[in-house]
Amino acid sequence: MQKLGLIAGGGGLPVEIAQHCERSGRPLFVIRLKGFAGEGLSDYAGAEVGLAEIGKCLKALRRAGCRSICLAGQVSRPDFASLAPDLRGLMLLPRVIATARKGDDALLRLLVREFEKEGFVVEGAHEVMDDLSLQPGPLGARAPSQDELADARMALQAARAIGRLDIGQAAVAAHGLVLALEAQEGTDALLARVAELPAHLKGRPGAGVGVLAKAPKPIQETRVDLPTIGLATVQGVARAGLAGIVGEAGRLLVLDREAVIALADELGVFILGVEPEQPEPKGP
Questions:
Q1: What are the tens digits of pLDDT across the range 229-264?
Q2: What is the pLDDT of residue 183?
Q3: Strand pairing of 170-174 and 177-181?
Q4: First-to-last CA distance in the chain?
Q5: d(C-alpha 22, C-alpha 155), whole Å
Q6: Calpha distance 98→118 (Å, rounded)
Q7: Which of 60, 13, 21, 71 is nearest to 40 (CA)?
C-alpha cells in the first residue's frame, strides 16, 4: 500500500482515518497542525507543523516517503497577520491571502493544487475509507414520515442554495419554513441557535418536527471538505427538538458510524441519505 501522509486538523475525522490505516496495515505519517490536531494522533509517527510552515510540511512528507496525502479535520480561518511562515510559506502567503477573499472553497482548491504541483496524489477521506460515506436510505431503525420528508427537501434546498454562494453547508427547516442557515459558526453552533427558537416554530413540544440538512457546495473540493456528522450532531439535533438529519448519499461523512446509529436510534432521530442533486443540463 502507498504510504499516506495525513495532514490533520481538529475533530474526530483524522483520528478515524489514522485508526483505519492502522487496522488495514496502510503505512501512515501524520502532519499534526499546531493548534488544531488533537491528542489522539500523538502516538502515530509524524511531525508537528505550523499552519504556514509549507516547506517544513513538504520536507517531512518526502522524508517519510509519502506519495499520497489526505487533508482532514477542522481548521478555522487564521488571522493571517499572526502566522509565522517559513520561506516556502512566505512565498505562497500573498496568493493565499488573495484567494481567501474569494471564499473558503477557493482557498482549499489552491492548497490542493499546490500539493499536486509538488507531485503528491490528494485522496479524500471517503477515498481512504470507503465506508465513511452515507448511503442511500435510512441509516438506523427510524425512517422519516411524509411531513418530515417534506422538511428534509426544504432544508436540502436551502443548504444547496447557500452552498452556491459559498456561505455554508447546513440548514434547518420545519413546516416548510427555513429556520436557520449555517455560516462560519459551524453546525454545532447552528443547532444551538435552533434550540433557542420558540417551540411553535419547530412543531408541538416533543413532537420532533424539523430537519437538519447538510450538503456540499457545488464547486467544493470534495477531497478536502465534505460535510460531516457525528455523535455531537445527533445530540445537537435531539436537543434542538428536531426529527432528523438528511444528506446526499456519497457526499456526507459519518464519523463513528456504529455509535452514531445506536445514539440516533436511542434518541429517535432519523438519518437519511438521498441521491445527490444532478447538475442542470447546459444549453447548446
A1: 999 999 999 999 999 999 999 999 999 999 999 999
A2: 87
A3: antiparallel
A4: 45
A5: 37
A6: 21
A7: 13
